[in-house]
Amino acid sequence: EFCSGCDRQFLMGSRCGVGPFCDKLGLHAHHPRNCLFYLRDKEPRDLQKLLTEHGVPFMTEPHDSTEGPKQCVVQLQRETSEGLVDDVCSNEVKEGQAGLCRLHYVEYLAALITKNDVDPLDIFSSDELET
After folding, report:
1. Pfam families under this entry (predicted)?
2. How many angstroms separate the CA atoms of 115 and 111, rounded?
3. Whole-number Å distance between alpha carbons of 24 and 17
4. HSE-up of 44 (CA within 13 Å, CB side)?
């Protein structure tokens, strides 16, 4: 198992080997602070501001349509009683989020932050910094 945000492997407790404190942890990974793990609850406007400050371009409008979808069209698999089923997200799309729902737009912005090695330090609260 690995993190979809930073590709770090999840390891169980002492198998991690980073330090003795890991023995007390269950399944975990040591994510960099620009990973989706830490950015997933941030507001899109904060992530957009961070990318703008670092000169990283990002989309706000759908790239393949003039009107834009009303529902998120990201393909995914859903687990059902019959097994995995191919589907689309279908969550509500808001203006200025590149035709994606909030969840998938935040994933998109976080991927840009990780890919461009942007340090999100400025958008963390004091509690988040302590963590």
Report:
1. E3_UbLigase_RBR
2. 6
3. 12
4. 18
Among 27, 10, 15, 37, which Cα is nearest to 1's? 10
Domain-by-domain residue ranges, the chain? 32-128
What tens digit of pLDDT does each residue of 68-93 get? 568 998 999 989 899 999 999 999 99
Tens of pLDDT, residue by residue over 36-73, are 998 999 999 999 999 999 999 999 988 765 565 689 98
Give the DSSP per-residue string, 47-83.
HHHHHHHTT----SS-SS-SS--SB---EEEEEETTE
Q: In this structure, what DSSP letter does residue 86 have? A: E
Q: What is the mean pLDDT of the chain?
A: 89
